[in-house]
């Protein structure tokens, strides 16, 4: 029977392999599949006893972690250390990383753990195998930073940076860059501390000079590392800000502008609204021409129309001389109010009410119609429903009034305004609700 | 009265997978055992597999009737062939002895019989098994969950909306009253609506004071509006050609929905404006994936939706529909995904309430991790956490903070019932984990809280508690003195459970606190909860056992030649009478039950082995009856008699072929039905199924063959009567009913289930809603009455209600006979 089923097995497996090779689509990987196989394989081997006990132990640890039973987890972890001697080389290589992850979580949360224990554990784990040295060093440094031990963290990062093992692999290179960047950030931190010290000094020439030189050396160290990291595509907000601040301090406005422009406009980088905001703020500080500011914010408007800086953008556009900017100004306001987080933004509503009035006086009703046409089927329910009118009136009368005014213009046919704009949709209920409220 | 549906987990991996030894355990992979299944099928349902071929060939074979004409040389006598086959079990044994006749027959007929069946059936079976196996691994139909909570007009009132019924086709609306300190209380019985399709997903939302419930079935979506008083008001129903895979209600505009189907289309749907297709792409976004699963949800902008498939998440703008919106999430390097990682669930986490979190957050769950994304910063997840769930995470819910400035609990539920809770704090508007994630007790963790049961009861309870988790709804009751959270869970068996979680001040860390529960190992039950659970359990144990999804074969030729004439005559009469009346053929019509050979029982230790008796009785669920009988002291003499008898039968049970002496027992009436369930009992059940299916054939069979067939049927191992094959139930009322009114018994099963229409809210449900357990779990269950489903005629209803206790068993016994050829389980095929 056994021989027979083995034969079958071979047959079926062969079939499967053929299928697999035909099909280039990568298959979905289901972690619970092995459970099903295990529960089925009554005759199948379940692996060695060693593998079984370690996997059970791992389950216990994970369960204890999820129940916040840190002591229990740490006890199981002591037993789990035996996986470091697993005969399966693949598992043996994986073991240090798993142990580090579990152990650091336990030590981070355990009520009796302290920085010394954590550091001792990290130092031991770093030197088991070579693969995890950099990763553990970085996480160790971050832990120290979290506990306010900046100098220890710095030392740690320094050590990790000078660590070398064989040829650098791609992943190692990335990690080294990251470690250097964090060291650069800490250099920046020291630099900015020194800066406040220098500024608080009395005008004692010698001391100031020495301190300034010291500061400058930190700047140089930091700038090298920060410059490196922000070349790699990614989100590096903190690093970019620190770097730009230092450049600005030393008067390198062009350099700072270049960094910010690259960070905002490089297509390899993921879309990041913060990059545009940094650039805008920098340019604004520099008193750049308004056209330039508008062009920066125009891009931000396309990415995140709901950003609160858009109100500022609206004011800029309003002040501008170009008519197309005036038209865009309306669109910007309407786009802000499209978003669910901004529906009760009273500034936006009052801007809109004012601006609508201005536009109509300026005889540009078609702008309003254009903006309104894509919104007429959902804004009435979204903003001007009876329920919302009542709610706003109860919570914030000014908001309710602004909204009522706007709805009057947009929906038309409101008596006290005498402005009838075509909206196509007669919604007497919404208007009347606001009118009623106004009449109160 | 039991309102429960029996529930069984149906298919398990053991049923599908190859079970042989794995040569390389390291590279072990699941192999669907098609050969084994085909093998089983041919053995178990040979009549279906070979029946048509047999019909074609029957002209040329003589099955053993007396030779009437010797002229026809085209007819082959199989008498000797059948005799050779007698007792021969060739399954899997290539070295079995073959007679020349068999050899010749298999050489000539083998190719036709074997290949045709294999070719025709093999492909279909393989396809079916593959779909079943995929569904077993990942049941994507239940993504999103089918349990919804609708807050009521008063702050502590609300409604739970969930499906029950075997086909999940009954939508229930149960009013619940929450209390800041006490247990939630069910107000009255749930009102319900019977749909014509299984409910896969229930979404609820209250926008601008309007409470809406959206329901997704396989090919229909429907929307109801809940009034504070009166029944739910149906708004609109949508029918889809392709299977719907996801539905979501807009958090911005009342009555607006996003619906997506397997065709790759995503539509915005509102009762006022109708349907608007905003995306259609049968291909997956990032790379090619065979799955046609799609999902849609809303974003912070009411006109922009997210569309998800297995490979990623992308925006779709309703104002300018196009197929190439910007990607929000991509399975790949940006999120450092693993190999084979796929999106299983995507959810928009923003709500109209001002939350401490930014309203631009989205949740994405894969089989390994949970990702939080901000739609303003696409592709780069803000947070990633390895959830470690060993079942697909298909349910998620973000809750409002239990008190102002507390972290927001985010619940994640796996189909296997495992729950995870994260605490998101929004300080600085970027989400952060305020405390390490937690696991919450799952339903099966409440098992120690139940009283110890008899083994079969324990198993039943375990299975029930292990039923997949198909719905999750959490409520933070407003205005509680101590912050608390109520967690409702719906299982696939139709039970709704709840647990209450209290916020515990977390002293160990500086974070504000984290809700936590009792340790599941120390389940403590308040007296009221215990009473409630006992009630639930009692009802559960009264539910008739689930029907076996298949029945083992009993068809064998052995008895053809050893037939007694007088017996034959009686059988024929019975069969004829049944056919003439056009009713079901019952055991009583054929012949008394042959004595079933019990398995060799061990010798009792003393003259009165009470322990074995009692054990025996309790295995048959007759513990209580045994005890009563013991007290009366009236049963003992009979019992002894039967044991004596069993001892004499012992020798015969070892021989595979029944000798004629066995049949002499048949004629002597049994004092009472044997109590021990034996394999033969089961066989006798299925013989019924064969009879029934063959009875239908009779009309198509040439007259001269009918006699043969009748002879053939007559000698099938014939059980005595219906209730004899139910060793578990020896209720006098069931006996009388099953024999005297056989026709009626079969009616509820054969009733057309389509008789009820959509939107026909039944006035009341018959079930009792009971609840209450404070500390850990308590359960209430609403399983509607099965009869209301199938028998709209009042006459039958009344029969069923008046004799409820006995009738429950009848369908359960008679259904397998119908199910043999026409399974009842295919109910999900019904329309909506």
UniProtKB/TrEMBL annotation, chain A:
GO CC annotations, alphabetized: RNA polymerase I transcription regulator complex
GO biological process: transcription by RNA polymerase I
Pfam family, one: TAF1_subA
InterPro entries to which the protein is assigned, alphabetical: SL1/TIF-IB_Component (IPR052669), TAF1A (IPR039495)
Cited PANTHER family: TATA BOX-BINDING PROTEIN ASSOCIATED FACTOR RNA POLYMERASE I SUBUNIT A, TATA BOX-BINDING PROTEIN-ASSOCIATED FACTOR RNA POLYMERASE I SUBUNIT A
Protein name: TATA-box binding protein associated factor, RNA polymerase I subunit A
Organism: Sarcophilus harrisii
GN (gene name): TAF1A
TrEMBL record, chain B:
Ranges where the record places region Disordered: 588-607, 630-687, 721-749, 773-832
Ranges of biased composition (kind: Polar residues): 721-741, 773-790, 799-820
Recorded GO CC terms: fibrillar center
Domain TAF1C C-terminal: 685-755, 797-832
Entry's transmembrane regions: none
Pfam families listed in its UniProt record: TAF1C_beta-prop, TAF1C_C, TAF1C_HB
Domain of life of the native organism: Eukaryota
Biased composition (Low complexity): 651-669, 678-687
GO MF annotations in UniProt: RNA polymerase I core promoter sequence-specific DNA binding
Comp. bias (Pro residues): 592-602
Start and end residues of each TAF1C helical bundle domain: 459-657
Record-given protein name: TATA-box binding protein associated factor, RNA polymerase I subunit C
Coiled coil regions in record: none
All residue ranges annotated as the TAF1C beta-propeller domain in the record: 213-350
Composition-biased stretches (Basic residues): 636-648
